[in-house]
Amino acid sequence: MHEIRIPKLGMDTLECDVKAWLVKVGDRVSPGAPLLEVETEKADVVIEAEVAGVVVEIKVPAGQTTPVGSVVGLIDDAA
After folding, report:
1. What is the pLDDT along the chain (79 residues), one digit of tens a residue?
2. Is the pTM higher than 0.90?
3. 11 Cβ contact list (under 8 Å, min separation 6)
4. Do the Cβ atoms of 65 and 22 come closer than 8 Å?
5. Are 58 and 41 within 8 A, CB to CB?
């Protein structure tokens, strides 16, 4: 199981808003596929898949604020 994490987005950025999920549970993704859009005070960023697999869980829904480094979803990379 691969954790979808919010990467470090800048030296001063401690949290971001999940703006929109671009995938849903059950979707098959490949490396580089856009997963979600997040918004910081300075920029909007698209988080991409690091592995191939199936999205099995979305832990932080759109509209919520989450810390940098937090797990926002899961990809089953064995599927």
Report:
1. 999 999 887 778 889 999 999 999 999 999 999 999 999 888 899 999 999 999 999 999 999 999 999 999 999 998 6
2. no
3. none
4. no
5. no
Estimate to the nearest angstrom the gap between the alpha carbon of 34 and the chain centroid: 9
What CATH number should be reported for the domain holding residue 57?
Answer: 2.40.50.100
Q: Which amino acid is at 20?
A: A
Spatial distance between the Cα atoms of 40 and 16, rounded to a whole number of angstroms: 5
State which residues form the domain around 20.
2-76
Count the domains in the chain.
1
Amino acid (one-letter) located at 40: T
